[in-house]
């Protein structure tokens, strides 16, 4: 009788249990990713000083790269460093509208200027589209 009673009790518990077996959309971003993003922005944000003049040169030419590419890179370096410090300090908390997503806007469509989630990579090939661009010679 005890076995039957415990089986009924477990069945009732199992019947009332509700679980979400799907992957929630906010699961891609979490505190560990926020900490990693902050450390990457803090350590490698200085790459923007070199990267932005080369991107500006690619899109707008030598004069633009020489005149404001470095200024743009320095401004992005300051922004990335500040964002990195902010994300390291607040990584345990969901500070951006209750999520762990980056606080800055990514990929601004009308200018070659949206910040990516992680700093650009120099010298290595990657599957990210912002690391290198090749022009075909034929």
From TrEMBL:
Name of the protein described by the UniProt record: Exosortase system-associated protein, TIGR04073 family
Signal sequence residues: 1-19
Lineage: Bacteria, Pseudomonadati, Verrucomicrobiota, Spartobacteria, Chthoniobacterales
Organism in which the protein naturally occurs: Chthoniobacter flavus Ellin428
UniProtKB keywords: Signal
Domain of life of the organism encoding this protein: Bacteria
InterPro entries on file: CHP04073_exosortase-affil
